[in-house]
Amino acid sequence: MFKFICVFLLVQLAILARYLVYGAFEPLYYASTYLFLLAAGVLFFLSKHWAKKEVLYSPKDISSWSFLNRQRVFNNSKPLFKGDVQRGTIQRLFQQKWHYIIADLFGPVFFLSLKLTIDEDIVKLIPTKGKWFSNQSYWTITKNGQEIGYAKTVVDLKNTALLKEVIEMQIGEEYYSTTANTVTSHIILLHNDQQVGEMKRNHIISNVNIIECPDESPEKILALLIHAFHFKNA
User: Fold this and answer.
1) 69-87: per-residue pLDDT in tens?
2) For the chain, what is the domain count?
3) Of 76, 45, 220, 221, nearest in space to 68 by CA
4) Which of 44, 77, 201, 233: CA 20 to 30 A from 28?
C-alpha cells in the first residue's frame, strides 16, 4: 500500500520539478497520478475485507494444523486450528512503527517478527542485528518470556544456484533446519537429517496453509512459520 503512496509522491515531485525548470505542465498527466492513490485505497479496503475472512476462517475436512493468510496490510491475529478446533493464533509483529513501512516498501523479509500462541504457550520470533551489508537474517526465539534458541538464514551461492532456501536454528540443545525449493510452497523441517514436520498450501491456488507436526511442538511449528513468512510471504 505504501508503495503506491510513495510512487504518487515521487511522480508529483517530478511533475513539480518539470514545471519549475521547463515551465511545462500537463493537466492530464497530473490527474493520472491520483490513480496511484486510488490503487492504495482499493488495496486497503480489499485487505480489510480479507482480514475479516482470516479471522472468520474455519477449516473444512482438514485434520492437520491450518490457518488462512490472505493479506499482509493488517497485522491481525490469524486463528490457528488443529482439525476443526482453534488451538491458537499467529501474528506478525513490528518492534517499531517505521519497521512496518520499510517492510511494506521493500519486502516482508525486513524486520520479520512473529508471535505464536498455542494453548497456554507463547512463542516469539524476535529479529536481532546481523553484520552490516550481510544478506543473512538472524532471530532470537523465546517461549513464555524465556530465550530458548536462535535462527538464521543460510543464503549462499550454492543454495542460490540450486534454487534452495535454508534456515538453520537451535532450540534448546537440539539443532533443526528448514528447507524448500524456491519455486514451491512445500517446506520441510529436518532434525538429524530426518523429517519431523512440513508445511504447504492446501492446494496450488489456496491461501490456506497446512502444517504437519506429529508431536504438536510450538517450537517446531514456529520453525516452519519462520520459513514461510521469510521466504514464501506465507
Assistant:
1) 999 889 999 999 999 999 9
2) 2
3) 76
4) 44
